[in-house]
Structure formats: C-alpha cells, structure tokens
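As a warm-up, study this chain.
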Amino acid sequence: MSENLNPNELWDQISSRLFPQIGPITFDAFVDPLKPIGFTEDNKRLILSVPDDNASAITEKWKTELEMNFVEYATEITGRFIRPDLRTTENTDEKNSFVSAPVTSEQHIPFSQDAGLNPDYTFDKFVVGSGNENARAIAKAVAEGPGKVYNPYLIYGGVGLGKTHLMQAIGNQFAKDNPNARIKYATAEDFLNDFTNSLREGNQDNSNATALFKKTYRSLDMLLVDDIQFWAGKPQVQEEFFNTFNALTKANKQIVMTSDRYPNDIPDLQDRLKSRFEQGITSDIQKPDVQTRVAILRNLQDQNDLDIPNDVLQLIGEAVDDNVRTLEGAFHKFEAKIRFMNKPATIETAKSILAEINANKKAVVTVQRIQDVVATYYMQTVEDMKSSRRQANLVEARHVAIYLTRTMTDKSLPEIGRAFGDRDHSSISHAFNKIEEQVEKESSIKELIQDLAETIKNG
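Now compare it with the structure written out below.
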C-alpha cells in the first residue's frame, strides 16, 4: 500500500469504482451512507462507520455481495490485502482499536509526533535476492550505526522494487533499538508542503511557523525522505533541504533518501546537493529474479496463513516480472479468489488471475504514449520535446523518445519526424543512431531504455 494513502483517499477510490459496478440505487442505499474512520492497527482492515438505523441491511449486503468487490479494488489500488470492517457508531468508539483518518486540510496539523513509519516494513519481511542484497546489507549497517560511515545513504531504482520498504526498515530498526529517538519519514512532496505551509503561515503573522518547521526537521536523529527526484526544478525547496542536510550531518544525524534514478541524472538538481549526496553512499535496487520473486510469494503466503502449492507460486513468480508491487498485487488478487470465491489454490486459478492482470495492464503503444512516458521520466513536456530548444536534458529526452518510437512502432522516419515537431528524416536518423550506439556501449542507458519500454508496454 502506498505509505501515504489515507483512509479517506482509499475509500474515495474504492467507492468511485463501486458506483458504475452496482448502479446508483444500490450505491445510494448501501455504499454512500458509509464513512471511513481509519485503518486497524495492522493496516489490514479499513473501518467504515455504518448508520445505526440501517446497519443490519447494509452489513448483510456487504457480507454477501460487496465485500469481494471491495477487496479486489483495494488490492488493485494498494497492492495489499485489505478488507472492509463495518461498525456501527457505537462500535467505532472503542479505544485504541484503529488508526484514525487524518484531519481535513482545514484542521491541518503540519508536523506529527509520529514517525510516519509503516510497521510492516522491516528487515525480516524484506526478501533478499541478487538485485537488492547489496542495498540491504548497507541499510542494515546504517540502522545499526546511524550517522557514521554511510551518511547520507541514498537508494535508487525503478518503481515498486522495495526502496521505501528498505528505507523504512532502517527507521523501524533504529526506533526499536532507540525508543526515544526522533525519527521522521516524509516524501519529498511532504517536505515541500511543510516548507511552503510554514512560509505561508509566516507571512500571515505567525512568526513561529518557520521556526517550527526548522526545529522539526533539524532536531531529528534520523530523517527519511522518499522520492527526492520530485524536487527537480524547485530551487527554493532544494535550498531549504540543503540547509537541513547540513544541520543534520554536522550533528552526525542520519539521512536516508530514495530516488527513481541516480542523483546526477535528476534534472535541475543543484550541484551542491549532488556533491553532498556523494559524501555518503548510494546503492541501486534491480528487478528481482525469478528465484527472488518466488521467495517473496512464499513470504506473503506465510504472512497470510495460506497453503499454496509450490508449482502455483512458481507460475505466478515466472509470469509477473514487472516489480515487487505488481507481484504483491497478483498474490493478493489470487488470495481474494481463494478466500472469498472459494476457488481452489490451483494452477487453473492462478492462470485466471494472470489472464486478468495481463488483460488490464497492456497498453496500446502509440507515439503519444511513448512521448508522454519519456517526458514524464525526464520531467519535461511533450511540447518541449517537439520544440527546437537544445538544452542537454531536453535533447536527451527527445532522442530517447525517437529511439523508442522507432523500435516500438512501425512508423517510418518521415512519420516520426512529423510527430516530433516536423523534423526531417536525417535528424530522426541521427537521434536514433546516437541512442543505439549508447545502448551498445553503456549499460545504464540500456537499462533505462528497457525500463521505459516496459513502462510503455505495461501501462
């Protein structure tokens, strides 16, 4: 599950999928009256408040018809097995039984005393394989000796490979060993929002807002920041993080970060930040091999008290090779089938969920899709890629998009030229040849092209 997904957001997404499935009459009677209260402490159930006057009918409808839909949609959205937990108003008042939904934006509390860590993200639950064993070893060393040799520590790699899990495992281990430690997990967007909110409140005569922000982040024992590539092209927040970084490292406090790419490949990231990141150590996480994927599935099986034959786990592990998140989603979809639809844990059932996944994930490869994916990765716009601008990062994005268009579609050079701002075929040929040469000589470029192609194909 996305670490920052709150109960309200999850319920909004699930209910929006239920509406076209069940129709307005059933939706108004059995879905709309429910309100999300929070997750249970183990994050395995979403608690929904049911009106007392119609609780019996609503609960029965959910038990017989709607619960399975909920589980399927929750699995697709979060990648985890989450069930609905319907409670009347009286039962939702139980003390310490759930993690309440966040306050609304009008009641926004800028800084929580909670570290923001997911308790499921531990080293014990992180399956080690050839693609992540080095990253895991360094993470373990950081957790055991924070602020010393490996500071800062940056983990980079593609989406859904376990970067956040590994980073939060460091925080959870450190918290376990040091119960009074001040730890904060935040996404790069969280950091940006906290910073801009402090500036806004400071401009509204709340002179303490900026000081509170600085105190919160600069007095930590460990700061964990997810997805720092989000700061690309945002100099003001980079400046603030630079100052926060210096304050923490000077005090020998640990910083751990994740990114979807190596820091030097993040466009418009200040050189002095890159230099600071190089003071510590970076490690990448690669896609898990088949053996690791099957081990992940066995681990999930044990966690969920299931008995699934090895040949079934092997089939799923071989078929789902995108990333760990997709693999977990496939497992939970299979789990939902055998728990709620009484399907047997067999090869046939596994093939049925794999067919559903493949039917849903394959996207039509078009020039527009290639341009959109590449532009997003390079944090550019499609319009800029079609323009005559010659900034280095933009030119690279344009060349990569042209190469992928040439290799993934049947478009001719003139057709590709028209799709990229009416360029002549010689320019297209030059761009293609340049990337082709780099793919042959540079493993990093080859890896990037493979990852982008997979994203384009899989949706």
